[in-house]
Specification:
Shape: globular
Largest sheet: 3 strands, parallel
Oligomer: single chain
Strand order of the largest sheet: 1-2-3
Distance between the termini: 22 Å
Order of helices and strands: EHEHEHEHEEHEHEEEHEHEHH
Structural class: alpha/beta
Number of helices: 10
Bound molecules: glutamic acid
């Protein structure tokens, strides 16, 4: 009996892409459990009215979930504990780079920067590791001077501290990958795990909460396939169980782009207001209507 989850951020109204993800997760639970997790890590963008809208939209689609739901903004202590464990294993480092500094480093790199497929067909350069080699005296000096910083995972060190890893893909992955997938720990580079003003950054919060909520099957869009590599690495470092994964296709707009919160016309609320039914939504998404 799988436990699956839908984990939206309450930063806007849900659209057709969210409906597909939520329905997929709900149906994959097949008599097991379906949980809803509110990924409100970013206090500047998360709003209670969007959480309320998520409840309404999912209820309208015919979904029900285990209550109480989990809000990541209430999970700071768990994330702190995990960060302390990672610090103990010496796989974190403070990074003082601003976004513009990172962009400039990448632009000036003599060698072609390491690029990675972050989403379906979308390539991005990964963090070039500028702060990885700072001496501990230099780190302490900058921290003492109050220089803003984030904490990054040293993926090379982390990978060296654990055996070779795999995860189970039960879906199709972006390239039809299926079965046992070998983890490429550095696929996304040295990801950020902690940021000022947030209880944790995405990758850390997700692995902690998937374990805490007993998730055995993670269903989510193909755009997060690359993220699974580093999340599997974090599970190994933190001694957490590993769920199975089933990445699914993305719902695209008329131009073939992934739907985003900016696509107002595709929000479930506006479709509902236009008289579209939950069954119509299923048909539009190519899901069976019973
Ligand atoms: N909160 C993420 C999103 O809205 C989903 C995270 C996940 O499924 O792992 O895209």
């Amino acid at each position: 009996m799988p436990t699956t989850r839908f984990a939206p951020s309450p930063t806007g109204l849900l659209h057709l892409g969210h409906a597909f993800a939520a329905l997929t997760a709900f149906e994959a639970a097949q008599g097991g459990q379906f949980v809803l997790r509110i990924e409100d890590l970013d206090p500047a963008r998360s709003r209670p009215e969007y959480e309320q809208a998520i409840r309404e939209d999912l209820g309208w689609l015919g979904l029900s979930w285990r209550e109480p739901l989990l809000r990541q903004c209430e999970r700071g202590a768990a994330y702190e504990g995990a960060l302390a464990q990672l610090a103990e294993r010496a796989v974190l480092y403070p990074c003082f780079c601003t976004r513009s500094r990172i962009a400039a480093e990448i632009a000036q790199a003599i060698e072609a920067p390491h690029r990675t497929e972050v989403a379906d067909g979308t390539q991005a350069a990964v963090y070039p590791g500028t702060c990885r080699g700072l001496t501990s005296a230099e780190r302490q000096r900058r921290i003492a001077a109050g220089t803003p910083h984030v904490l990054r995972l040293d993926t090379a060190r982390a990978a060296a501290a654990v055996p070779a890893l795999t995860f189970n893909e039960c879906g199709a992955g972006p390239r039809g990958q299926h079965g046992v997938i070998a983890v490429e720990p550095a696929r996304l580079g040295d990801v950020v795990l902690a940021r000022k003003g947030m209880p944790a950054a995405y990758h850390l919060a997700v692995v902690i909460d998937d374990a805490f909520q007993g998730i055995t099957l993670v269903t989510r869009g193909n755009d997060l396939f690359a993220a699974t590599h580093v999340q599997r690495l974090l599970q190994a470092l933190l001694g957490l169980p590993t769920p199975h994964y089933a990445h699914h296709r993305l719902i695209l707009d008329a131009l073939g782009r992934k739907l985003s919160k900016r696509d107002r016309a595709a929000t479930l609320r506006s479709l509902r207001d236009q008289g579209v039914s939950a069954a119509d939504i299923r048909r539009r998404l190519g899901l069976a209507v019973t």
